[in-house]
Write a structure and sequence with these properties.
The chain is of the alpha+beta class and 410 residues long. It contains 13 helices and eight strands. Among the domains are: 1-126, no CATH class; 256-405, no CATH class.
Amino acid sequence: MDNLTHSIVGFGVGEVVHRSLPREADDAAQRVRHRLLLLSCALASNFPDLDLLLTGRLPAPLGYLLHHRGHTHTALWLLPQALLLVALLWLCWPAARRLLADSTRARLGLGLSVGVGLALHLAMDYTNSYGLHPWYPLDGRWFYGDMVFIVEPLFWVAIGVPMSLIMRWRLARLFGLIGLFAALVFFAAHSYLRWTSFAALLLIALMCGAAQWRSGERGMTGLLLALGVCAAFVGLQAAASHIGRTQLTAVLQRIDPASRVLDVAMTAFPSQPLCWSYVSVESNEADGVYRLRRGVLSVAPGRLAAADCPAGFLERLPGKPLAPGVLQAVKLDASLRELRALKADDCYAEAWLRFGRAPALEAGTLSDYRFSATPGSNFTTLRLGHGHPCPASVPAWGYPRADLLTPGLP
């Protein structure tokens, strides 16, 4: 997820932890604990992304692809990160240090805020199609949730509106609410969000905000409602993603029974469970080829046609209908032999293949088809034939497309 979303969720959870604990002995200690738990949970919700500092250990694009969402995004490294964050807060914040020395409730709150914040970061990153490998080194496989778009405004408004209303200063509350509304208008005006979704998000914001306002100065009804709405939304997206993947797999198998559908990467549209971008990976071992398709689908074409999904994320290519609700923008056939030879003979390509879920081999480059429609350029593109010494510090992540790289692997 983007760091704004991580931060908003962290602040919301930190507020819930603070309000769930008994009050401190005096108002000054209560205020320090409030700031401490909000800040610690928000920092913990972003802390694993410090692995961006490691991207320079490998040449581009390998550094970003292999070190971002790397070791700091594994369960094994959550405890060291938690200890480091707590140590930094202890050393750099004298008032918090005094409070933690005296208050068991503050220590419990800090532990919960940091622990939940770190776990939420991994859970939220799992929900999109980029993936992570949380069980390394026991299991180096990538796991993909394929549920939520990497920038999801529902999280912003559901949690952000109650949090804005909680702020002590009227001007801060006003700026928070205006900023959230402006973000929604920007998304809708640039066709990243359907106006029906815009209206639904406003309704959710009003519901969560009203619930928090009625709960009083120390209540948290609105925040709990917001967290429940977010959890329900993720569940809805998971169900829609599964339906879309199942529908598309059936369509592709009907189009080409000789090929095997190995994977369908589903990328959500913001706040629109019916619309999905997809990248499919098919293999035909007998013909020595594999096929990638990229397009958009609607899981309920009777209610919303694929061509009516938010235009800001649709490719500027004429879509080819494959079935009701399924449009194909691009299709690419590539050689299994050439891909496997690259893994065996090119150490840069071998490292790249530890990331690539949809490896597009064309025009002397290797790129991930999931990101081919990225504005500007595909940040995963690796130019082949570099002739440089093999890169060091390559993490031993599993190959997402081991099923393509190894003949006969089911």
